[in-house]
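Action item from last meeting closed. Structure (113 res):
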């Protein structure tokens, strides 16, 4: 079973690089996630650690299609998203929430397939 180590401090990133099978982020902007993923790569390289390493990112801003592609290029292997931004614009009825989830699928998920 893989062990994912979380945290954004230098000590946490170093620990993930040294002993983890992967890293899991808290909610950060895409720019900050890219920075932390790059730092993990550098730390792992310094340790001579190569091979698979899971990177689970949870972006809170900049997570449109372009931002998600950036995270993939940076090395994210998994991205956790919610259609929250779409829901906020839709209202509270069940029908409007279903429409928001459909829009999320159409505008975010489908272009990334």
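Sequence:
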């Amino acid at each position: 079973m893989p062990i994912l180590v979380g945290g954004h401090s230098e000590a946490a990133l170093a620990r993930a690089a040294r002993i983890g099978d992967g890293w899991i982020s808290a909610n950060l902007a895409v720019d900050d996630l890219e920075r932390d993923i790059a730092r993990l790569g550098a730390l792992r390289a310094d340790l001579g650690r190569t091979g698979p390493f899971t990177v689970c990112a949870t972006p809170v801003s900049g997570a449109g299609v372009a931002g998600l592609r950036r995270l993939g290029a940076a090395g994210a292997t998994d991205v956790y998203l919610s259609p929250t931004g779409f829901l906020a614009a839709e209202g509270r009825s069940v029908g409007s929430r279903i429409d928001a989830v459909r829009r999320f699928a159409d505008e975010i998920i489908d272009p990334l397939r």
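Note appended to the action item: The first strand starts at residue 4 and ends at 6.
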